[in-house]
Each structure stands twice: as structure tokens, then as C-alpha cells.
Amino acid sequence: MPKKAVKAEANKLAVSIEFLKNKIIKAEARIRLKKNLEFGFPPEVSLNLFSIKPIKPEEKTVKSVR
Question: What is each CA distance from 22 to 34, 38, 48, 64, in whole angstroms?
């Protein structure tokens, strides 16, 4: 497999990993919101969880492939 193809594939995987991390963060926030509401905390406390901004995928580049 040529080096350029390997680097391109590695970059795609890096972006996919960042995307999945963001989905996990959002899911955790929804779970915490649900638990807070179950325990009777006011929604204002839970709304702070949604102020978490997702991590933006940066341009990932693989410098060297061996």
C-alpha cells in the first residue's frame, strides 16, 4: 500500500475517532441530565451539562508511517 494511501486512511480514522468521542460526550450529558431530573434536581442544574461544547476534529496528519 503506498504511503499516501496509508496516510489518507489514518487521517480518516483520526477524524472518525474525534466524531465518536463527541457522540459519547453528548450521550453522557443526556444520561446525567436524566439522572439529575430523576433525583429531583432543577433543570437549570442539568442544563449546564449541555453547555459542554463538542471537540472539533482538528486536521490530523500522520507525519511518518513505518
Answer: 19, 25, 17, 27
Q: What angle do CA 10, 17, 52 make, to 5 degrees?
A: 145
In the chain, what are the domain boundaries?
Answer: 3-51
Q: What is the DSSP string of 28-40?
A: HHHHHHHHHHHTT
Q: What is the pLDDT of residues 5-19, one digit of tens each?
A: 999 999 999 999 999
Query: What is the pTM assigned to this prediction?
Result: 0.51
The C-alpha cell at 58 is: 482538528
Positive or negative torsion for Cα 28, 29, 30, 31:
positive
Residue 54 in grid coordinates: 463538542
